[in-house]
Amino acid sequence: MKSKLNDICKNLNIEYMGISNIGPYLELKEILEMRNKEGYYTPFDGSDMDKKVDPKLTMENVKSIIVCLFPYLTDNMEKSNLSKYTHSIDYHIIVKNKLNKIGEELEKEIDGFEYMSFVDTGPLVDRYLAYQAGLGFFGINSHIITEKYGSYVFIGYILNNYPFEYDKPLDKTCVQCYRCVKACPGQIILGDFNIDPKKCKSYLTQKKGELPNDEEQIIKKTDLVFGCDVCQDVCPHNKNVEKTIIGDFKKDLIFNLDYEEISKMSNRGFKREYGNRAFSWRGKKPILRNLLYLENRE
Fold first, then answer.
1. pLDDT for 171-188, tens place per residue?
2. Residue 229 appears among annotated catalytic residues
3. SS3 state of residue 9
4. Per the residue annotation, which of 7, 48, 50, 120 is the catalytic one?
5. E strand segments, 50-107
6. Burial of 186 (0-12, 13-18, 19+ CB in 10 A)
């Protein structure tokens, strides 16, 4: 059945698929407890520790977890003020659609097959699942890195009630050159595979309200008004990586947002125009604020 699963994924242009065990993840629990103790978290991280480390609290009859990676880098590398991961239609839509297609195909093959699919906002730690499934290795910047696509990948996973054979983690890490540590605008990469995300530029661009001066200065360090690519762009593992073969990530691309255009939109108009984009989820106000910050750089 795992061979059949591989065939289903290949038909969907999914090259990276692995199976994670179902825990509970005691090693991860220790890491998360340390991060909480040190304050290495933001409101985006969620608070339910037990659900993060025990998949059975989300799906009681889970037997295995299908984990898939979705590369998103395209050939078009024109000047942009948006992080690369936001150029296409919202990745949540694209990835969730493909995960559900996997589930639907497995329903045809396995009697009584049940599944739950998640992208990014699910209860588990998706990078840890990708590591457990043998799909990549951790970088100092906490990203999952692959040989073919570097760290320019999204992660999706499917809790299910079929006992697919588990894969094993790779016995490898990044080269630990510390370029990301030195280049990070907010200096949040601690050099021990942990980060303190509260000053991450990507997080700050999505944070609501007016920001204190020190956070404003972090946003002003690069041209992006949403997200941040610095730690990935300087990473040697991302040099000369291949581009995505998934067509959905190559269509309807947006590279720049303009202050004058967005300022004239109502909130409803902004959602109507950009509601299917990953950068729209916090509304137009943080983006307008960030555009003003960058316009007022000295």
1. 999 999 999 999 999 999
2. no
3. helix
4. 120
5. 64-71
6. buried
